[in-house]
Amino acid sequence: MPTDSVGRFLAALDPAHREAVAARPRAEQERLAAAWEEELGADDELDTLDELSPPAAEAEAARRVMQRES
Q: Which stretches are tagged as biased composition: Basic and acidic residues (predicted)?
């Protein structure tokens, strides 16, 4: 299991987005990972989901970040 934020973010993405983000420059990956961590920490709904299923909360936050990017 990845321990750095970029690795955790990539793991939370669906396969298509994972490949697209992995192909981006490292600085862009770090920016997206930071946005993902901010999303995880800022949304109370995700806090509740995180208590039930941390992977689901991480995946939802990743989906939201990528949706904002498109």
A: 60-70
Residue 23 DSSP label: T
- List, in order, residues 6 or more apart from 30 with CB less than 8 Å away: 5, 6
Query: Domain-by-domain residue ranges, the chain?
Result: 5-69
| 3 backbone dihedrals φ, ψ, rounded to 5° | -110, -20
- Give, in degrees to the nearest 5, the angle at Cα 44 between 42 and 12: 70
**pLDDT tens-digit series, residues 20-45:** 999 999 999 999 999 999 998 887 78
